[in-house]
Each structure stands twice: as C-alpha cells, then as structure tokens.
Amino acid sequence: MLLVEATWKEIETYLLDSQAIVIPIGSVEQHGPMGLLGTDAMCAEVVARRAGEIGGFLVGPTLALGMAQSHLAFPGTISLKPSTLMAVVQDVVASLSNAGFRHIAFLNGHGGNIATVTAAFSEIHAQRSLQQDLDNLNLALRSWFDLPGIRKLLADMYPKGHGSHATPSEIAITQHLYPHAKKMAPLDPQIAADGRFTDAHDFRRRYPDGRKGSDPSLANPEDGAKLVEAAAQALAQEMVRYTNK
Ligand code: NI
Fold it and tell me: How far is the CA of 142 from the centre of ligand 1 (A)?
C-alpha cells in the first residue's frame, strides 16, 4: 500500500496490524552525460514500491531531494545541506512515530545521504535517551545497492566499468522505468576515473563529465528490471521481521 494513495482511516486500520513503513529517499543531482537528474530518487522509489507489493507493507512518499553538495557545480542539481536533511529526517520520523509507527526504514538511492541520515538517527536516539522515552522505535537505513546479494549481482553484470557514480546499474533501472527518457552520449574515456573529492568545484575538476569510475553505456533496461526485482525481494525479506503478519 502506498501512503499517498491511502486515506487516514486506511492508515489507522493498517497500524492495528503493523507499525512498519518504508520511506524511499533519493537525490536530484547530475548523473553524467547519459544519466537523468532524478536517477537516485527514481531507483529508491521503484525498489521500495515493488518491495511493498511483495511484502505487504506500507510505503511512504519519496523524499526526492538529498545531500548532493559535491554535484552542485553541474546545473540541475538540487541539494539539501546536511543540517537541512537531518531536520527533514527528524521531522518525518517525529510525524510517523507520533501516529504510532515503530519500525521506520529509509530505502536509499544515494551514497551521499548515508552519513547525514545516520547522523539524524543518532540525534533522534540521543533526544529519546535524554527524555527517557521508553517506547520502542526502530530506525533503519538501507541502500538498494547494498541489500543482501546485490553487490554480487552488480559484479556479475558489470565486471568492469560499474564505478561509483552514474553507474550502469542505476541508469539501467531508469531505462527500464522511463524508456522515453533514455539518453545516449559519447563517453571519453569509456570508463571514467574514480577516487576522492572534496567540494563541488573539486569534483568537477577531477570528474569533468560527472561520472566516477563508470561506463554507463553498459546499461540496458532488461538488467534494470532484474535489479529492481532482486533488490525488492531482498528488502521485502529484511522487512519481514518488522511486519506483524
Ligand atoms: Ni546515483
């Protein structure tokens, strides 16, 4: 069930059986010369929604904007500062826990969100510890590409040229979902450089077309469909322990 397509009465009934919800979280940021700006939000959303169908749990609205400061030198990127994203996560958790949700999992599509969302969880737990809040509250952060079995699948699909940004796997998922928006572009070099970076200007200097370590021309929609199904099955499996069904 999708929260945005439900009524409050349906959510009240759902909470009698289960207090679990998954919130997709992504980013709107450059994804190289072929990748869509919405890639990370699109990937998180489709995996969470498919997992919700498999596992019968509630999926909340997608938090499309994330912490993408290092991509700000490329136009189209919209980034929340770490402090802003922490505030958003804290407010989302406060709203849901106030309604009775006790198992709140964020399904993430962007590596750059991980440190900030984890820090937001620490802030929430610190406040609860100091207030001696005794209600159970489980917060989880899972990235679709780190779910059990997915790294192995990625290594098998793309033995060379997967890389770490504008990867063929995430672009394959968007080609599967949005075939009308598929883009092609010349890539030079075919596999981009990879490594460290600091701020957005440093990122663009080191990685001028926006890719890191990847060859997105390896993407195809069939692989995208397989990745969505595998990640959704893995997420549904992880959620079993939180759903009282
Ligand atoms: Ni991405």
Answer: 14
